[in-house]
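Fold this sequence, please.
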Amino acid sequence: MKKSGRSGTIFAVGVAAILLFSGCSDGAADDQENDTTVATMQPRAVETMEVVEGRLGGQVRISGLVAGTREADVIVETQGRILSVEFDLGQIVNEGDPLVRFDDRTERLAMQQAMEQRNAARLDFDALERQAERGTVSQTALTSARAALRGAEVAYEQALRAYENRTVRAPIGGRVASRSQNVREGNFVTQGTPIGRIVDTTRLRLSGSVGEREVRFLQEGQPALVNVTAWGAERLEATVVAVAAGSDGQTGSFPVAIEWENCCGDVVRSGMSASAVVSTEDTTPGLLVPTAALRRVGDSDFVFVVADGTVQRREVTVRDRFGPQAIVTGVSAGDHVAVTAVSRLRDGDAVLSTRIGTSEDAL
């Protein structure tokens, strides 16, 4: 009997311990749930910008490669074995300077013969023309002599061109940007072979492209600032000189060209990377909203307007947009719209807001 009483005592103590542990666990769970509920009720910190009336504007950025406003590929218009090469990489050449010479003895003789034939044909024509004025020769003979003279002149021009082509000359002045490896004395080259490229870097051009939203803000004559990576942080004053009337068929973007006088000497060269900034402003005013404040669900655009510590979802109609700004209807000047944590906000949420500027300050 004594043994049975001891077991009952142990059983009672165990049950009491289980009940006590269970009660403590339930209390801890309740406290944790209450803490979560309090946390979700805490106001969310957001930054806001004030809606103001203004114009769409900002900066159109264009990236591309630098080139000379005049660049020429030098092409051989004859064929034969090279006698001498008179240019090299980086060399400054003037328009008309000889670059490559071929043997021209045959062409020189052919040109001289054609010149003599032209001169003889001219003498014959002049003599017949004087006789025709006196009426001692027929008009048919005079016409034939005139045709013979013209044929001789054409033959001479062709022979002269063939002779001149035996010396390849610089088509423009500038620096030699490239030279073909085949251009060596003794090598045989054929007609149409490219032998080098000359770049005039006194005036430089940046060619790039922009999208359909930006192209309408650009026009010829607008000032621009160019940053050439190799030149450093200093921006160079430039001008927009061309804006394409249509988009590129492959990329869908619109080509733009910007030019400036080269004040950097040899530091800036053709083929270097560069970027340009063109400051723009639209002519149509409206209520500006930072694009960071806009959300879109389905076909609807909306913003969160902050007032009295809460946010109100406000549907808007986007009339136009450019860069970090949009012109909308559906809000009023002076409204404060949330620009941070927008994707986590819900209509009626409590917030702690900090104004960081106006919609004109959006970057």
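The chain is about 25% helix and 40% strand. Residues 60-67+201-283 form a domain with the Elongation Factor Tu (Ef-tu); domain 3 fold (CATH 2.40.30.170).
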